[in-house]
Amino acid sequence: MTSANSILNNPFLNKGTAFTLAEREALGLVGTLPSHVQTLAEQATQAYDQFQSKPSNLEKRLFLMTLFNENRTLFFRLMDAHVVEFMPIVYDPTVADSIEQYSHLFTDPQNAAFISVDDPDNIEAALKNAADGRDIRLVVVTDAEGILGIGDWGVNGVDIAVGKLMVYTAAAGIDPAQVLPVSIDAGTNNQTLLDDPLYLGNHHQRLTGDRYYDVIDQFVTAEQKLFPESLLHWEDFGRSNAQVILDKYKDQIATFNDDIQGTGMVVLAGILGALNISKESIKDQKFVTFGAGTAGMGIANQILDELKRAGLSEDEARQHFYAVDKQGLLFNDSPDLTAAQKDFTRDRSEFSNADDLTTLAAVVKTVHPTVLIGTSTQPGTFTEDIVKDMATHTDRPIIFPLSNPTKLAEATAEDLIKWTDGKALIATGIPASDVTYQGTTYHIGQGNNALMYPGLGFGLIASKAKVLNGETLSAACHALGGIVDTTQPGAAVLPPVAQLTAFSQKLAEIVAQSVVDQQLNKEPITDAKQAVAAMKWTPSYQDLPASLALN
Ligand SMILES: NC(=O)c1ccc[n+]([C@@H]2O[C@H](COP(=O)([O-])OP(=O)(O)OC[C@H]3O[C@@H](n4cnc5c(N)ncnc54)[C@H](O)[C@@H]3O)[C@@H](O)[C@H]2O)c1
Ligand SMILES: O=C(O)C[C@H](O)C(=O)O
Ligand SMILES: [Mn+2]
Question: ipTM > 0.95?
Fold first, then answer.
């Protein structure tokens, strides 16, 4: 006989006060709940009132996480109704605050799997125990070396995996019982954590080199063995590991790196949206990527792919890029280039002032970019001078300050609109309010991979994709075209988060169709759209089998 507590404490089964009298009778719950039976809608109203009474975003998040820990159906019902309001609370930017304080605020492991590099023999056991018999189709894993732009947060970073998965369910409708957040605790180089007696992770420096990659490999092997139908999503790994890991597994299994590919997709989709507004061709653009790290180079590669699809040769396409990092413009003789950066360097002989190109200001002044992307983690670096300089050489400058969270953004949307007299076509990493300037209201798209990865991932899972390739990524980037009415003055370059559910569904269908068209599905599928519809979970209470009481 299952005890009342094992049902009430199981967030995938629990209905709380919504258990009917008959269910209470059948499941051994009589007398364990107040008498009045509520509907899900009534529970949602009560919970939303409590949510609103919380004084800060972090407290709002803690309240929502309590609900999430207790009752997934109720949590997602509420998120469904308030997605625009909840996104910045459960996800970026408030998730950054919760990560920084994770060890001090800890109350619940949230059904995540915690893998320690000090205990490699138990990797499979950790995944199995955390899954607890659930049919896992989606794993988000982080080692938290590069959380957003706030650096190394060790085991605290598990919250980003939990947060990304919340967005997956809210946006695309993956069943929350089919997902697994995973933390790989490889140690941390964050001295504050190492010095903190309450820090919940391994108190030692990060494991590196072959021993680290061996742990990653053991994790992938166990993950694929236990959950052969799952998609593996990598999040916030460090710059020196993210691309290496992706390259190792991308042709073997269904996997993607969100910071590289998810970000590349949302930026290309945003640029396509911007070019729809300006009526320009992508072949006429000059791209400066400021912050040539994991995201910056993922973006450059996705745009490069688009230029080649538009008919440019590899060499011609590469001429459109100027990658800027700490050293300034990256040249083929710059020291300390990463493997990804080497593909996007310039030759000093192209510039009479090559030695002066050590700052973003000098690069913009010399190159006259039409598109400026920020993934540098350096706040305020898109200065008024730089932006005004850019705007004197192009009619509709495309400017995406994408560094997260809020405190790290290269510029605010409001300043960019003001400095360019309303000409800039903008997307920001975190949500930005509308900007009203000289009688026009400008809507600001959120250039965050959250617009893309739920639909991408769901489409791959629903179509049982063997791998994700460039063809499918490209199809997904073009999927959002037409959703925004770009003829409206002040139109955003990307669709609003308010439509997240609708466009994630469309994206998933396009991704699944691309997989099926290329015969990359592991099992036969006759109708990709139908496969997506069949996989979709909605937050409503299901009848619990009476057999639960007899287990
Ligand atoms: N909006 C989105 O969807 C999205 C997606 C991914 C990453 N990001 C943001 O982009 C930022 C970078 O993330 P990442 O994963 O690429 O990290 P990363 O560490 O791989 O890359 C950051 C790069 O910026 C460079 N940099 C640091 N200081 C600089 C300076 N003063 N001038 C020029 N370059 C400098 C670093 O050398 C590094 O190459 C983060 O803030 C992250 O939140 C946003
Ligand atoms: O997590 C986000 O908000 C986007 C992105 O993956 C990031 O690392 O900043
Ligand atoms: Mn990320």
Answer: yes
